[in-house]
Amino acid sequence: MQELWHLLSSPRHIMVFEAAARHGSFTLAADELNVQQPAVSATIKQLEETLGLALFVREHRQISLTAAGLRLYSDVNRSFEDLLVSARAVRHLSREDYVTLNASSAFSYYWMMPHLTQLHERHPGIDLRLQASDREPDIDSENISLAVRRGDGSWPGCESALIAIEEIYPVASPRVMATAVNLKGLANLLHQRLIHLEEPIRDRPTWRQWFAHFDIKNATVEGGLRLNDYALVLQACMAGEGFAFGWKHLTDPLVRDGVMAAKPEWTWKTGLGFYLVWSKTRPLSSAAKNVRDWILEDR
Which of 176, 196, 179 is nearest to 238 (CA)? Predict the structure, then answer.
């Protein structure tokens, strides 16, 4: 950034250049910027001296961009457009009816999406934004209204309410489940193709931990498909790639609909849960309260 301002002298020079280039006139640029025309002319001259070449061809009562000026204007205009979009988005965050829900892609897709019609019927004016991420951002610094977190219900600076206790059982496509050989004993699952969830940041249970819970210690769990997103895990599972973890609050509807088969008798209750969290220090808007209450009622 220091090199940028060494080349361009000042952010003001770029603003003046953009206005002059867009209008094709120093006079119109001066009117827009509420300065005198000689000030615009002087600023452009300073910028040209800093860059070491002309940006405008000056003719009687008109100006036009040189090849270098066209190149600079193209990049500056695109950057200004990006800044405008970003500024509008940031300003939009302060709207009362704008509610951001941060959650995993799997929760957004398999829990929220099937229920959104009910939310819109009850609260038609709410502008809900589903924000999927592979991390758990700070809800205050990133102005997030609500978030879904896995844990024990205690996060610094956050209120929380339980959505579902964590219950995990094996799931597979109906075809894979039907053709699996000798699944009468839980240990025989070790001989099946397993799908692993390996998220890059968030801590998630592993098949080794699942087997250990059922007293199968030091289980060798090596092969199988490894994915970094649970929504992908479920898609691979339904496509017949093997057995996966089924988080009960997400996969029960899929089992009921017949797109998945499960072994609910092999359920591991981890002692943790999935919680809806919100800031202790930043009051929720009325719209965010409505979304919070709706989620907790519909759990």
Answer: 176
The answer to whether the CB of 175 falls within 8 A of the CB of 128 is: no
Closest CA to 244 of 151, 149, 177, 182: 177
pLDDT, tens digit (0-9, with 9 covering 90-100), for 49-90: 888 899 999 987 889 999 999 999 999 999 988 888 888 777
Output the six-digit token pair for 81. 């457009």
Q: Quote the tokens at residue 2.
A: 């220091």
* pLDDT, tens digit, 9 for 90 and up, residues 129-166: 898 877 788 888 888 999 999 999 999 999 999 999 99
The residue among 272, 273, 278 whose CA lies nearest residue 291 is: 278
CB 28 within 8 A of CB 36: no
Instruction: Please name the helix (run of DSSP H) or strand (run of DSSP E) that holds residue 31, with its range, or none.
Output: helix 26-33
Enumerate domains of the chain plus CATH numbers.
Answer: 2-92 (1.10.10.10), 98-299 (3.40.190.290)
What burial class does residue 131 get, using C-beta atoms within 10 Å of its C-beta: 0-12 exposed, 13-18 middle, 19+ buried?
Answer: middle
Asked if residue 246 lies in contact with residue 170, where contact means CB atoms within 8 angstroms, the answer is: yes
CA 79 to chain CA mean position, Å? 23
In one-letter notation, the amino acid at residue 207 is: W
| Nearest partner of 243 among 271, 223, 273, 258, judged by Cα | 223
Contact 246, 260 (CB under 8 A): yes
Strands (E), 66-207: 98-103, 127-132, 146-151, 158-172, 195-197
Q: What's the token pair of residue 290?
A: 């409505």
